[in-house]
Task: structure prediction
Amino acid sequence: MARRTAEDAEKTRLAILASAQAHFARDGFKASLADIVSDAGVTKGALFHHFPNKLALFQQVWTDLQKGMDEEARAEARKVIDPNDPYSQLLAGAKVYLKWAARPEYYRIVLFEGPSVLGMQGWYESDRDIGQRNVRRSMEFMADKRCFPRSRINVYSVLVQSVLNGFGFALGKGEDGLTPDVAHEAFEIMLRNLR
Result:
């Protein structure tokens, strides 16, 4: 039997993750591991070689979705750096997040299943690690530009991330006639009026 290369192992891992994302998006955490490996074209042994259990697999899918959204949001924010508009970068990143939140797989895995599977505290801490870092940097920049006092950085960082998460839940569920563009417009009004 030929030895598998690191490249083969990575292809297997990526196939498992792609299949798992599709199944978790459709069925939530109750998705069948047998279905995941079948659609990935691998064995359960291969799955357990890369992921010790279903929770670890879910956490990796959750993290990959979060990182994908975060990378796209930061890339868009870098495109709109405007020294005359201290709000522009956060607004660009927020627009990306709101579009991702409306995607069924992102909503189901990150926002809907995430809190119950990871536990509210685990979900909050993981979500905060990614989102709060970017929001806080933006709040610091806005405070430096005298949009509001530096003493409000912490409270506004929590407020802004909470508003974005709230919009994310509503967008994902398709509630209240919200679209990413409508939510972004309201978010911009709120953001520009922080004092």
